[in-house]
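A student in our group prepared the protein record below, which I am reviewing. I have pasted the whole thing underneath without changing anything:
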Amino acid sequence: MLTNASFLKGLTIHATDGELGTINQFYFDDETWAIRYLTVDTGGWLAGRSVLISLISILHTDWPAKRLDVSLTKKQVESSPDINTHQPVSRQHEAEYNLYYGYPFYWGGAFLWGPARHTAGLKIPMTASAKARAARIERESTDSHLRSTEGIAGYYVGATDGEIGHVDGFVIDDEAWAIRYVEVATRNWLPGKKVLISPAWIESVSWPESKVYAGLSREAHPNVP
């Protein structure tokens, strides 16, 4: 089902032994536009610390109750690697995170989740030694492939025949956990209206310029009802 990201923001995250916090934003892979992690605001429980929760940990989602259950304990989350959720996350950071939880690496495979099409198809590997974990982290690139939805919000969007507007939201497939459309506020071009852009139409994202380049004309983008 397609859901606006604004609906998912604020969902309560429950560990096996209590509430962790609420979803604040999403980290997506800038190569596939698949959502890899949820950023969870822990509130007073961890002194306001934001933590990453991998989609691999999701057990059950209760949409009417706006609740998502994960296969983690509060102690696991409290002791997890402290990743700055206000900055792009590098492969080295991801490797450290996944090795901490014992998750397989999803990158490098043929499918959306590496060797599997969905997280349910992933096999959890045996826990490696500290030395082996350190060596694996060191081999990974420092390049970033993860971007936050909050970080790209407000980026200008250009079509082949001019500027469209700016990124104003996201439409998410809440079964596959992937961004299906980027919602663009058109400003001066079509005042008060929005259009949808599929990631398949996006040719590139310039992080230094804070701009998204789409390979279609302005007239080709469908209006949001």
